[in-house]
Amino acid sequence: MTTALAPDQLLYTPTEAAKVLRFGRSTVYELMAEGSLKYVKRGRARRIRRSDLEAYVNSLEPLPN
Fold this sequence. Notes:
The protein is α+β, with helices and mostly antiparallel strands.
């Protein structure tokens, strides 16, 4: 199993996104609920674009040493 972003995969389930980010699934849902992680919704299904995962990671600020 790989946790890297697959170049051909455009949408991720919250569970897949959690594996990629190395967060818990509930943390991903919390990020989605607070608006920190954008997602699309079709019916009951929520999916996260690869570009939104990358944007979220790029927005994280490193802690000072």
